[in-house]
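Hi there, hope your week has been kind to you so far. For a while now I've been wondering how a particular protein folds. I'm sending you its amino acid sequence along with the C-alpha cells. Could you read through the record and tell me how the C-alpha cells relate to the sequence? Take your time with it, there's no hurry, and the full record follows here.
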Amino acid sequence: MTDPDRQMAIFLDIQRGLPRQGPGSAAATRAALALCGPLPPAPTVLDVGCGPGLQTIVLADATGGRVLAVDLFQEYLHQLAAMAADRGLADRIHPLCADMSQLPVPPGSADLVWSEGAAYILGVERAAREWRDLVRPGGCVVFSELVWLAGTPPEEAVAFFQAEYPAMTDIPGTLDRVRAGGLDPLSHTILPEAAWWDDYYTPLSAKLPALRDGYADDPEALALVAMTDREIEMRRRYADRYGYAFVIARRPV
C-alpha cells in the first residue's frame, strides 16, 4: 500500500471500538506504577500516546494527580473524555491532541511520564532522552515495550517482527537504550498473558470476520486485516518467546 493516509485510515478502522490499542491491563498499570516508589502528592502525570485511555483512568485514580493525556487521534481522546466524565475524573484528566514527536510540554513540568506501547514510534533511546527532559530531576519515566524473552527467537517470529518492528530487541538491549537516553533504569516487569487477550486480542479477533466482509473488494485493506490475523497467530504460537516489558526509569538528580 503506497498511500500512508489510507493505510492509517484502515488501521484505525481495524482498531476502532476496542478497549485498548495494544496489550495492557489495569492490574499491570498499577503494578508498574507501584515500582516507581513514592510520588509527590497530586503529581503531574503526562500520558504519551494514551489512545482511548484505560490506563489514563488508572493513573488519575491511583495517583490522585492531574493527567495530561496526549494522542494524535482525536477520536481516541473523545472516548477518553467521555470515560473520564463517567468516572468523575474530568477535572483531573486533560486530553490533548498532539504529535508525540513535538510535545507542547514545558521541560521539567511532569513528575511522571507514562507511555504504554508507544515508545517504539520514536525509538526507545529518543523517547528516553525526550521524556527525561520533561520530568523534574528524580522524576520517573515508565513505558511498555515489545521485547524478545529468553532463548533464541523462532525464525517465523523473527521474520514477522523484522517486517513490523525491526528495532525490537531483548530486555538488556532495551535497558541499554534507556541508559543511552540519559535515564537510570530502576526495574522492569513483564505483562501477564491476560493483558494481551482480555482487552485487546480477544475483541480484535472477534472483529476480523466483519472486516473481511466489509473489505471483500479491497485487496489492500484485506492485506492489513490478514496481517492483524497473523499477528494474533504469532501470539498463540510463541507467547513464551516475546512479550511486553514495563520499564521503570528515573531521571538522575
